[in-house]
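Hi P.,

Sorry for the delay on this. The queue was packed all week, but I finally got your sequence through. Input first:
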Amino acid sequence: MSKTESAIQWMENHANDNRYGYDQRYRWGERGDFDCSSAVISAWQAAGVPVKTRGATYTGNMLSVFLSCGFEDVTGMVNLATGAGLRRGDVLLNTAHHTAMYCGNGREVEASINEKGTAVGGAPGDQTGREFLIRSYRNFPWNRVLRYKENTATKSVDELAREVLAGKWGNGADRRNRLSSAGYDASAVQTRVNELLRAKSKPQAVYYTVQRGDTLSGIARRYGTSVSAIQKLNASLIKNVNLIQVGWKIRVK
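Then the structure:
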């Protein structure tokens, strides 16, 4: 699993577990609660990116620390109004007020507010189901989008396509997001997947090199086919049994 995928799954798992809510006083999970910045920082720290160790503590210093830890500022590549161009795991940041992470499929995940509508004083855990939540993407407004530069993109397109066919990368938009988050070209992988599926659906011809003493009928028996089928596949080469020659490569099915 890539570090990006590990971080976004940490956020999603916490949002889906009501033991985790929102609080700015006990914000590092002491009682199960986080605020917006401590959640995102903790997610990446848990994924193996030492943003907390390097000094990230709140939205105001996340930008500089995250950039020093292997993130790049991709704000110019994204339509903040619609979310077009965002990838699963992107960090959405308003350097003065708020931060969240993009889940893919038009969704974001964040720690938001406690059950009292305040930043402190609520009960531990999520009392409303919306203290730490997954919601539809919206422009907070964000003024930075940060994307982690993964170092895991080492597999070939063919290898990835075969892993996709084995079910290792999920399906649909989830698959595209995971491949992109890991640094791979999801479109190139899908093209190769389609090629492999087409090749698998086509009957594969077997080529046989004629040896001395071979006859078409003997070859047909060996491969469970017929003389007429061999002659049809090799119409330009074989007219009748007597024209078979040693060394010819003929298709037998």
